[in-house]
């Protein structure tokens, strides 16, 4: 079952260039940075109440984030919904004809299991399910 909006993923070319906006202009505190090798990204998280903002910097031209920035420029990349059972959420999506990008969850930032739904099946919004390990 979906329990909350966990985070909003924002594609950026450079964490070093983007973080000062969130800290100095918005007054948020960076909770930390992490590299997610399986996704070829570096991340930085900011808490905004119960929801987080996740900045995503590509570490390779083959990264999904690099390809997104090349096509669309920097900006909102995905919406992540927290769930208590990512496998059941994937099954529910597939049962309803939604195209999934991951048949089984993969390791994500923040010690979470994640899986994505294809935006062509979700009204143009890249959707992520995430669950703490």
Automatic annotation (TrEMBL):
Q: Which NCBIfam families match?
A: metmalonyl_epim (TIGR03081)
| Residues annotated as domain VOC | 4-132
According to the UniProt entry, its GO molecular function terms are: metal ion binding; methylmalonyl-CoA epimerase activity
> Can you tell which superkingdom this protein's organism belongs to?
Bacteria
Which family is annotated?
A: Belongs to the methylmalonyl-CoA epimerase family.
Q: Which Gene3D superfamilies match?
A: 2,3-Dihydroxybiphenyl 1,2-Dioxygenase, domain 1
What EC number(s) has UniProt assigned to this enzyme? 5.1.99.1
UniProt xrefs under CDD domains: MMCE (cd07249)
Q: Which keywords annotate this record?
A: Isomerase, Metal-binding
Which top-level enzyme class is recorded in the Swiss-Prot or TrEMBL entry?
isomerase
> Which InterPro entries does this chain map to?
Glyas_Bleomycin-R_OHBP_Dase (IPR029068), MeMalonyl-CoA_epimerase (IPR017515), MMCE/EMCE_epimerase (IPR051785), VOC_core (IPR037523)
Q: Which residues form the signal peptide?
A: none
For whether the record's keyword set contains Isomerase, the answer is: yes
Organism of derivation: Oceaniferula marina
Q: Know the name of this protein?
A: Methylmalonyl-CoA epimerase
Biological process GO annotation list? L-methylmalonyl-CoA metabolic process
